[in-house]
Write a structure and sequence with these properties.
- This protein is of the alpha/beta class and about 475 residues long.
- It has two domains: about 5-285, Purple Acid Phosphatase, chain A, domain 2 (4-Layer Sandwich), CATH 3.60.21.10; about 295-485, 5'-nucleotidase,  domain 2 (Alpha-Beta Complex).
- Helices cover about 30% and strands about 30% of the residues.
- The chain contains 16 helices and 30 strands.
- It has a six-stranded mixed β-sheet with strand order 6-5-4-1-16-17, with helices on one face. It has a six-stranded mixed β-sheet with strand order 9-10-12-13-15-14, with helices on one face. The chain has a five-stranded mixed β-sheet with strand order 24-20-28-23-29.
- Helix 3 packs antiparallel against helix 8 (about 275-290).
- The protein is globular.
- The chain starts with a strand and ends with a strand.
Length: about 475
């Protein structure tokens, strides 16, 4: 007779400081109070339950930014996940600050592939064992290569950034515990859904990995994908959803006997409020409201940013604002830097900083017309439309592009209404993240660009630039005007 035991796994990813509930169709949805209320309720009702978070707790809210993540860790301590892995935004305040935040956390943080180079030593605990109802369950944490973007200047740090290397690291850990009866193995990753699928295909079945719970790509699924007999899942982004596995574990064969999975809506119909969390949130909100609640500007109407992979109203607004304020010929503004889907007409300082929360430098580089075409061929490559992990950009109004997916070529590539010639030169504004990762983001090397002339830092803090623009411009007009068309 098979030895079967129940296991419930709740999972979140990419919370991004999404702490406050929103009113949707007259009901409250999302927020860590309702999320915590559901988790705590299920801890009482489900016999064998683990709640895990697959990275990116930090960044995206004023409460997080104002207290440099310390507030987020206190909120997470109240939420009390059983295990968490690192996301790329956990490094946004620097490696030293991340190590400080880890000391503040009252929950385990696992990562197996960030190393001190010399001597080669893991910087974090690679895995965590849980003993529940006689079962031994192992979580292993893995991070995307983008973690290096924020701390790449720190030459002491190294990461196994290649998915093949990451798979081998999983094998080393699993092999090290082959003599211990591990009933269930879960990879808690922050490498994106497509990379999770690649990773699963590389894993040796003898290593015993049963499940990959991922983050980073903000993927919403109707059901888990199974590759190499490994279930792969993710739970979108923020606190409006929560993934739930109800698994029957075969502890004789150490695998999944059966399972059900659902993506739960976190709202006041399904979830009770957590009163302790409510008190903590109100304390932080009072402080940020007092500092950031004053009106800065007014828009003509509500503007939207429904997808990072298309031209949007908010994308045009911010790209044009940065171009106007800095005087560059063309601004390429990262779509992922816009962290909200809408901006209401009344823009307070707090609303603006939550919409564009990043504080990096702005750089001016010189690109030729041929290089601009090369860049946009890279941005609009077919992988962009088939996956959910490539970089995409909003562009200021003087450049107009029409791209044919069928022809894999430009139907239009004009600047100020005239075709861009190859030997023309343009002053292009870029955020520091994309300047530092030019080849990955834009498909061109920094050396190629610097051959056209020296670069310049045109702002040490991009938030200063956008705050000044909004404080001086009211009734801003923005619309999708066809500057970026994909046919």
């Amino acid at each position: 007779m098979k030895n079967l035991k129940p296991l419930t796994i709740l999972h979140s990813n990419d919370l991004h400081g999404d702490f406050m509930a929103e009113e949707i169709d007259k009901d409250l949805a999302g927020g860590v109070s309702l999320l915590s209320g559901y988790v705590q309720q299920q801890r009482k009702e489900a016999p064998n339950l683990i709640y895990c978070i697959a990275g990116d707790m930090l960044q995206g809210s004023l409460i997080d930014a104002e207290f440099k993540g310390i507030s987020t860790i206190e909120i997470m301590n109240t939420l009390a996940p059983d295990v968490v892995t690192l996301g790329n935004h956990e490094t946004d305040y620097g490696l030293t600050h991340l190590l400080f935040l880890e000391r503040c956390a009252r929950f385990p943080i696992v990562n197996a592939n960030i190393f001190i180079k010399n001597p080669l030593t893991r910087l974090f605990t690679p895995h965590k064992f849980f003993k529940i109802d006689g079962m031994r369950i192992m979580f292993i944490g893995l991070i995307t290569e983008e973690v290096m973007a924020s701390i790449k200047s720190d030459n002491l740090i190294s990461s196994l950034i290649n998915v093949n290397d990451a798979a081998a690291e999983v094998g080393r850990i699993c092999n090290a515990y082959r003599n211990i009866d591990v009933d269930f193995t879960i990879l808690l990753t922050h490498i994106g859904f497509e990379e999770d699928k690649r990773l699963a295909a590389l894993l040796d079945p003898n290593w015993g990995v049963d499940l990959i719970i991922g983050g980073h790509s903000h993927t919403i699924l109707e059901e888990p994908v199974k590759i190499n007999n490994i279930l792969i899942t993710q739970a979108g982004v923020g606190t409006k959803h929560l993934g739930r596995f109800d698994i029957i574990v075969n502890t004789d064969s150490n695998d999944v006997h059966s399972f059900s999975w659902q993506l739960l809506d976190i709202n006041e119909k399904n979830c009770p409020k957590d009163e302790a969390m409510e008190l903590l949130l109100s304390s932080y909100k009072e402080q940020t409201d007092e500092k950031y609640g004053h009106a800065l500007s007014r828009l003509r109407r509500k503007y939207t940013h429904p997808s990072r992979y298309q031209e949007t109203e908010l994308g045009n607004l911010f790209a044009d604002a940065f171009a106007a304020q800095t005087g560059v010929d063309l601004m390429l503004y990262g779509s992922g830097s816009i962290r909200t889907e809408t901006m209401q007409p009344l823009v307070t300082l707090g609303v603006l900083l939550e919409t564009v929360p990043f504080k990096g430098k702005l750089h001016q580089l010189i690109f030729t017309g041929a290089q601009l075409k090369q860049v946009w061929r890279h941005i609009l490559r077919e992988e962009t439309f088939l996956s959910d992990h490539t970089e995409f950009f909003q562009l200021s109004h003087r450049l107009r592009i029409a791209w044919s997916r069928a022809k894999q070529d430009f139907e239009c590539f004009e600047y100020d209404g005239k075709p861009v010639i190859d030997d023309a030169t343009f002053l292009v504004g870029l955020q520091s993240f994309h300047r530092d990762n030019l080849e990955t983001s834009l498909g061109i090397t920094l050396e190629e660009v610097l051959a056209n002339g020296s670069e310049a830092v045109i702002a040490t803090n991009e938030q200063d630039v956008i705050i000044e623009y909004f404080s001086q411009h009211s009734m801003n007009r923005s619309r999708v005007d066809g500057r970026l068309t994909v046919l």
